[in-house]
């Protein structure tokens, strides 16, 4: 996705951010208004849905309550605040388990993350298709190549589901790939009903935090037609999903850069777009991270390190 990163960088250079205006917007935010209250109230719902998905997938390894799953998710979110990619998230969830089946726990976490990735890819591909035919600046050879790549990724995901039982038996000389396949052995244990249930929860969660993004945009007076708004939100989360997570602080900056790129054709005020995306990060990431630190502290005292496998 180097081309996507380069294009986002090009867009950012053309739209210099007025950071003093962003901070001013943040200070003037009406947190007692309907948009802000709805945004805040959906935050625990968002992470409760993630906990429910985790509960469904981890029960093949260990039966946990929804409250325990919620604690594991928040612990993972807090660790992910400082560690790159999915490392912190997986670590927090696995350390929350009581059993020593850590390798299978890692596999369940990878399946959970992969499932949310696929949902974002599905909605994002549809959003990109909409912009291809409605936004002239997107209708380029590069835009159609990107569409082809996205469809190929969806096809690959569809192929992996029916052959998931064979993955642990695959032969490879690469040690890291053999270890990954060992982690993914749990994927072959899920029934179609369990996978369907988890995908539905992942989709509901995607719609929840997408609606939160809409609320954050409306909080700062940003309004577009419904199709344009939905496509823009879908593309922001697509860009965030497929962009390598080199950033710390839970990808702070990725969503903001993607938002400027996505909404550039609509001529929106850069400072307002940045303020909306920062607000979403503060509400949906920073606040839950602060709550998750409690569970990270408890993990430090209640869990002793055990070898994986």
Automatic annotation (TrEMBL):
The chain crosses the membrane at residues 31-49, 108-130, 142-163, 269-297. The keyword Acyltransferase does not apply. The keyword Cell membrane applies. Pfam families: LPG_synthase_TM. It is a multi-pass membrane protein. Keywords: Cell membrane, Membrane, Transmembrane, Transmembrane helix. It is found in: Cell membrane. It comes from the Bacteria. This is Lysylphosphatidylglycerol synthase TM region. It comes from Nibrella viscosa. The lineage of its organism: Bacteria, Pseudomonadati, Bacteroidota, Cytophagia, Cytophagales.
């Amino acid at each position: 996705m180097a081309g996507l990163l380069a294009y986002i960088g090009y867009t950012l250079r053309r739209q210099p951010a007025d950071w003093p205006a962003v901070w001013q917007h943040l200070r003037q935010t009406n947190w007692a208004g309907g948009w802000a209250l709805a945004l805040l109230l959906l935050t625990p719902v968002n992470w409760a849905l993630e906990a429910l998905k985790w509960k469904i997938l981890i029960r093949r390894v260990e039966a946990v309550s929804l409250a325990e799953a919620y604690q594991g998710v928040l612990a993972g979110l807090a660790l992910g605040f400082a560690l790159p990619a999915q490392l912190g998230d997986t670590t927090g969830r696995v350390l929350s388990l009581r059993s020593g089946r850590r390798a299978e726990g890692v596999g369940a976490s990878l399946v959970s993350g992969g499932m949310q990735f696929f949902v974002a890819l599905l909605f994002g591909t549809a959003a990109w298709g909409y912009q291809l035919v409605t936004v002239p600046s997107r209708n380029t050879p590069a835009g159609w190549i990107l569409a082809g790549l996205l469809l190929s990724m969806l096809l690959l995901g569809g192929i992996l589901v029916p052959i998931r039982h064979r993955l642990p038996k695959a032969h490879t000389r690469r040690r890291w790939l053999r270890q990954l396949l060992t982690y993914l052995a749990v994927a072959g244990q899920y029934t179609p009903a369990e996978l369907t249930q988890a995908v539905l929860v992942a989709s509901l969660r995607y719609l929840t935090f997408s609606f939160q993004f809409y609320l954050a945009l409306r909080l700062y007076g940003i309004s577009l037609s419904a199709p344009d708004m939905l496509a823009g939100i879908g593309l922001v989360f697509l860009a965030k999903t497929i962009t390598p997570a080199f950033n710390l602080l839970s990808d702070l900056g990725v969503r903001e850069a993607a938002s400027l790129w996505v909404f550039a054709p609509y001529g929106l005020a850069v400072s307002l777009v940045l303020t909306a995306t920062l607000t979403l990060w503060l509400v949906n990431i920073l606040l839950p991270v602060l709550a998750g630190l409690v569970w990270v502290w408890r993990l430090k005292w209640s869990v002793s390190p055990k070898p994986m496998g």
